[in-house]
Write a structure and sequence with these properties.
single chain; about 190 residues; alpha+beta; 5-stranded antiparallel beta sheet; about 35% helix
């Protein structure tokens, strides 16, 4: 008698869903112990009446033409690309670094006097400074190291001979106390 109660609920053409399965379809046949459902994919499947529930017609999603048009237009709009934002550190980053440590400038400093080493370092600094001026490079960092400050003072003497140059300590976080940055004012 229980089966007749369930069978009376379903009629051919009803929209149903499986309770435990993700099946949705239309009832095509109602027998004593089984209900045949044609799934949305077109397969004929058999269920016991207690495995199905009715789906009210209003549960379908309805979309107006205006909503479809708006969705299409929104999808067709080109997405705005984010412009990379240059950070202040990157914007102010020096364009040229000149390491004046003697080990970077000569193969071996063995046999060289302090005076000869200083002259090699100063000549390199002057050559790189002239190069930067010619190539219109505005910022140059001269890495001289901490030491006793002799090279640093000689560099300052060299920089003071140029009117279009200002010099100051380079970024402490990057170079510590052993570097001087210069700014070369460019003529228009």
């Amino acid at each position: 008698m229980n089966q007749n109660i369930f069978m009376a609920v379903f009629e051919i053409g009803d929209l149903v869903e499986g309770i435990d399965d993700t099946v949705r379809g239309i009832v095509r046949e109602v027998d004593n112990e089984k209900i045949t459902v044609e799934s949305d994919e077109g397969f004929l499947l058999e269920f016991a009446p207690q495995e199905l529930i009715m789906v009210p017609e209003s549960s379908e999603i309805r979309v107006s033409r205006r909503q479809v048009t708006e969705a299409k237009n929104e999808k067709e709009l080109p997405k705005k690309r984010k412009q990379p934002i240059s950070k202040p550190k990157e914007r102010n980053a020096p364009k040229l670094e000149v390491d004046l440590h003697i080990g970077q400038l000569v193969q071996s400093s063995k046999g060289m006097t302090n005076h000869e080493m200083l002259n090699v370092q100063l000549e390199t600094a002057k050559r790189q400074l002239e190069f930067a001026i010619r190539k219109r490079i505005q910022k140059v960092v001269f890495i001289h190291g901490v030491g006793e400050g002799v090279l640093r003072e000689e560099l300052y003497y060299l920089f003071r001979r140029y009117e279009n140059i200002t010099y100051y300590d380079a970024d402490y976080q990057k170079y510590g106390l052993g570097a001087t940055e210069i700014y070369i004012y460019q003529n228009p």
